[in-house]
Specification:
Shape: globular
Radius of gyration: 15 Å
Number of domains: 1
Structural class: mainly alpha
Oligomer: single chain
Number of strands: 0
Largest sheet: none
Order of helices and strands: HHHHHHHHHH
Helix content: 55-70%
Distance between the termini: 15 Å
Length: 173
Amino acid sequence: MSMENLEQFADLLDYPTPARLAACSPDAWPDASPVMRDLVGQFARQAQALPLTQLEEIYAATFDLQPDCTLNLGHQLFGEDHGKHSALLIELAAAAKKAGLDVGTELPDHLCWLLRLLARSPEDAEIQDLAPYCVLPGLRTLTQRVPPDHIYQPLLQALYLLLASHPLGEAAA
């Protein structure tokens, strides 16, 4: 799994900005599989055809205002089971501290933050275990909940393919 690709996905799945959308360029994905590049390209073509304000509205309406489509994977994994969700948040906050990362105002189960944590901690087996046991199952649920024709669907599918093809991800795929 390319750590650079994880950072790129984190940027593309974060709130849209012109700088983050620059990661859509096919040139920015030289090591990606053809299928993954095609899926990212589908998203790029659609995103670049929209004014930034419209993409921001789509992003907020999907990931911020629809609880079933939140990027907070604890909700995707545990729904309204606040006990399990809280336990996950505590564990992820400890992982962040261990890795020396500050999640800022996000909850530590936010997909973009988790991707950055994975990318920046490639040698930490405990953190890498988040891929098959937290990120991949949560992403699978999220991908099923986002409508098939949604602009972000190809991006979610590409990320799923990347994580599922990683040796740690194969167990959960």
